Amino acid sequence: MGLQALLDKYDNGGFTKTGWFQLKDDGDTATVRLLHKGQIGVEEGTQEPKYDFPIFEVHKLDVDGSGRDRTVLCKGEACELCKAGNKPSLRMFLQMINLDEKDKDKQVQLWERGLTDIKQMLGLTAEYGDLTQRDIKIRRSGAKGSLKTTYQYFPKDKSERNVPEPQNLVGSLILDLDREDQIKAIEGRLQLSKGNNNSGGDREDSSGVGASRVF
Fold first, then answer.
1. Which of 166, 180, 184, 187 is the most exposed, fewest CB within 10 Å of its CB?
2. What is the percent of the chain with per-residue pLDDT over 70, rounded to a whole number?
């Protein structure tokens, strides 16, 4: 699926309804199976744990003047978005099977979380190991619309369950822009065209436009 088709899914509401994991009100729960193992070894040349959680430093901004923010990968010291004063944030994009979703075509879902839940996931994998080996019940604490909502995680006993491979979100949901396209994004004039790179030129597509995903 091309990026324009993905943007259309955002615009018509289908993306939210079919792809995003949600607990809408205080006390709501769901049982899920993550598509990420968690800790998968140690980083080469260090003793620090290595994880397969999709955690990225990203920016949120309207890149094309549509009035809707997109997620853009931060480039660190060379990031034009940072230089322009757009502050990045650390976000985790968990992919999971929502076992309480009755429509099997909608069971694979995505949940974007911040620092608090990143730390929760690191703690869970440190305690329980491979998180693809057990279901996890998630409970919301916080009324609908609350800015102080938190989530509790209750891992179940190990059980067998077939899970798909998680998809690479960089280049589809998360735009990976070079310097030229970052500047266009800052100015709100980035062209997002189906099956093409973001600048519309002949160079190889570095942003991943045309990448497919299940959400």
1. 187
2. 81
From CA 54, how far away is CA 50, in angstroms rounded? 12
Cα(80)–Cα(187) distance, rounded to whole angstroms?
A: 11
Q: With 50 as the cut, is the pLDDT of residue 210 above it?
A: no
3-state DSSP assignment of residue 4: helix
* Segment 46-74, tens digit of pLDDT: 889 999 999 999 999 999 999 999 999 99
Q: What is the CATH number of the domain that holds 10?
A: 3.90.198
* Residue 214 CB coordination number (10 Å): 16
Answer for the pair 152, 142: CB distance below 8 angstroms, yes or no: no
Mean pLDDT, the chain, whole residue set: 85
Residue 121: inside a domain: yes
Using the structure block, give the residue that is written with the tokens 């607990």. 23
How many distinct structural domains can be found in the chain?
A: 1
Extended beta strands in 5-64, E state: 29-34, 39-42, 49-51, 55-61
In a domain? residue 149: yes
In a domain, 198, yes or no: no
